[in-house]
Amino acid sequence: MPSWANWSGKLTAYPEAVIHLRSEADAAAIAQEAASNGRRIRTAGAAHSHAPLVQHDGIIVDASGLSGVISVDQPSRTAWVWAGTRIYALGRPLHDAGLALVNQGDIDQQAIAGATATGTHGTGTQLKNLSSAVVGAVIATASGELVECSPELNPELWQAARLHLGALGIVTRLKLQLTDAYRLREQSWQAGLVPTLANFHEEAERHRHHEFFWYPQADEANGKSIDLTDDEAAYPLAEEGHRCAWSYEVLPNYRPHKHTEMEYSIPAAKGPDCMAAIGDLLRSEFTHVRWPVEYRTLAADDVWLSTAFERDTVTISVHEDIREDDEPYFRACEEIFLAHDGRPHWGKVNYLNGHELAACHPRWHDWWQVRNDVDPNGTFLNNYLASLV
Ligand SMILES: Cc1cc2nc3c(=O)[nH]c(=O)nc-3n(C[C@H](O)[C@H](O)[C@H](O)COP(=O)(O)OP(=O)(O)OC[C@H]3O[C@@H](n4cnc5c(N)ncnc54)[C@H](O)[C@@H]3O)c2cc1C
């Protein structure tokens, strides 16, 4: 019996089929066949989402066979890449072309179409999420066509495709806005929560990347500041917090410990108050939680469903061990996040219904309009997404 599980193992599915893509033509044929037979498809990236985006009992399409850099355009600093390419597999070929992603998240295990599907981001007050880097896409839609979109070609579809939730069709290629290859030096630091929050935003403005994990039981923030450098890369790479090398070697980290996670994006000005309230919650009601709280920054963008849509943002993530019941802790955190105008990360846990999500996202109805136009019969929705309409 076919099966699927996400990275943490908390979400499992027994779909009617798991189909491994080998070509774009295959993607188009699978989409058409499913649509004409009333079957449903969810496309899987690297299964690193904690939200039930892929989980369903229809067809799961595994796009990891569509992998690699297709072409690079040096003058515009853009590249077409196959949708199933893991982010770690982009680093070296882009570097060889003198290019790099403008920013990356905490790990590089995700597929690029999976990461852009949910607005995956790193940290940096001037740096946007990965969805903002999508300047073109090719999607196998329910009509069986391979539809290209960009700011010039099918611009509404492109707007929706930048953060697509896997709900428009099977994304086969993405065109990414890149930057010149760059080297980074990271520096780690430690401090208590109160002094950390007192000057966080000033410090964050001084560094290209600035973030911390706060450990509640020790009341210690373990932070990192990362900046551009002309220093030569040092190999073997030093441990996290001390690396000096190319961006794709410094930004990703090794995160082997299985956990679940909730993350909300908060307007930047409300970030410190929100973080302080989460700190109080942990000290008063959830003293058993050993997992840290992560605090990062994210620049405003114009991606319809982005959690940083038209506002500078801090992101606050709470974690719990997969063996624990995370719900009471996460629900209590969610109450605080919502009281600070939070918007939930699409790839992590939240308990909002469609009405509540619509209230978070000014372009919610535009996104659904485009989605419904391109997939009127819901071939690319699972029960979770269908429940949000
Ligand atoms: C250890 C860990 C660390 C993380 N670190 C960060 C971080 O630093 N920053 C951050 O923002 N998030 C982070 N995340 C969350 C993660 O980046 C997102 O959940 C991301 O969407 C996962 O990508 P994936 O390739 O695993 O996609 P999946 O989880 O498999 O899928 C995510 C979405 O993409 C869709 N999809 C994937 N491929 C395609 C395709 N070819 N066509 C159509 N739809 C597709 C799926 O249908 C689904 O809707 C982390 C998660 C984990 C487990």
Can you offer a commentary on this structure?
The protein is of the alpha+beta class and 389 residues long. It has two domains: 66-180, Uridine Diphospho-n-acetylenolpyruvylglucosamine Reductase, domain 3 (2-Layer Sandwich), CATH 3.30.465.10; 183-354, 3-Layer(aba) Sandwich (Vanillyl-alcohol Oxidase, Chain A, domain 3), CATH 3.40.462. Helix content is 25%, strand content 26%. It contains twelve helices and 20 strands. It has helices spanning 24-36, 91-96, 112-117, 155-162, 193-198, 200-206, 247-250, 271-284, 327-339, 354-360, 364-374, 383-386, and strands at residues 4-5, 12-13, 17-20, 41-44, 59-62, 69-73, 78-82, 99-100, 134-140, 146-149, 170-177, 179-180, 183-191, 209-215, 220-228, 244-246, 259-267, 293-298, 313-321, 343-344. The strands form five sheets. It has an eight-stranded antiparallel β-sheet. A hairpin with a 4-residue loop joins strand 14 and strand 15. The chain is globular. It starts with a strand and ends with a helix. The model has no long low-confidence stretch (mean pLDDT 98). Bound molecules: flavin-adenine dinucleotide. Flavin-adenine dinucleotide (FAD) binds at residues 7, 42-49, 53-54, 63, 83-84, 105-107, 110-111, 113-115, 117-118, 120-121, 165-166, 170-171, 255, 345, 347.
